[in-house]
Amino acid sequence: MIEIKEVSFRYEGTSASAIRDITIEFEGKKIYGVIGPNGSGKSTLLRLLNGLIPHFYRGEMKGRVLVDGIDTREASVAQLARKVGLVFQNPEHMFFSDTVYEEVSFGPKSLGINSDETRELVRQALEEVGLWEMRNRSPWSLSGGEMKRLSIACILAMKTGFLAVDEPTIGQDSLSKESLIQIFRGIREEGRGVIIVTHDLEWLEELNPDILLVLKRGSIINRGRPNDVFSDIRGLATNGLIPPYKYIIKSLIGD
Ligand SMILES: Nc1ncnc2c1ncn2[C@@H]1O[C@H](COP(=O)(O)OP(=O)(O)OP(=O)(O)O)[C@@H](O)[C@H]1O
Ligand SMILES: [Mg+2]
Known about the structure:
Blueprint: E1 2-11, E2 19-26, E3 31-35, H1 42-49, H2 52-55, E4 59-67, E5 70-71, H3 77-81, E6 84-87, H4 100-110, H5 115-128, H6 144-156, E7 162-166, H7 174-189, E8 193-197, H8 201-207, E9 211-216, E10 219-224, H9 226-231, H10 233-237, H11 245-252
Parallel strand pairs: 3-8, 3-9, 6-7, 7-8
Antiparallel strand pairs: 1-2, 1-4, 4-5, 9-10
Helix pairs in contact: 4-5, 4-6, 5-6
Bound molecules: adenosine-5'-triphosphate (ATP) and magnesium ion (MG).
């Protein structure tokens, strides 16, 4: 379980807090959706989950984040990476291997998993995201959408208890978006937790997360079942969020 307790965070050199007094728990066997306008603190929230904040990003943090009972301030990022896999909004910033295959095998290897098992994890992860055929290519030679799926495969192969994914559908075609839904549901079936940040509300509605959070200026302004959150069309619209089409139609026909 990940427990965020009364957490606020202000990046060094800025005057406004990016996260303001947030309290929330993320459990295994659940999919969470996080939505909110640009700059509302979604990516910052994810950085808190695996210790990038406060270990890599400088600033002022208040409150505590506990991952399986361990305070992220007291754990190293390497330790936390075994528990929470984070896919960045712009994943290409982190590729460092010569091939797609090596890139994905780095995670399991660094966890000390033996080579037979690593091979199996890498194959499985690359097949899941549809990149097995491209395993000998350079990560840098992939298209934008493929790069995003590669970064997802890197995290899948580590079999962490939690997966936090920033904007998974960016650059993805319809088939890939559909397969991402199956991947995330499969992870939930395995008892692991999934936290998805996205602007793609149509896709999110199809994914149907167990809980949906709405962020605004660093605070959680709404949380609940997607059906309830999406039905609050006025509330979403005042935050610049357009609810899924289905909900707009529903409100128009008064049902
Ligand atoms: N490294 C940083 N240094 C300073 N300020 C930052 C940094 N990263 C984010 N911020 C600021 O913190 C606030 C929250 O940013 P964050 O990236 O979490 O928003 P977001 O909800 O992910 O937005 P988007 O939808 O554009 O991805 C913004 O005001 C942003 O400018
Ligand atoms: Mg972001």
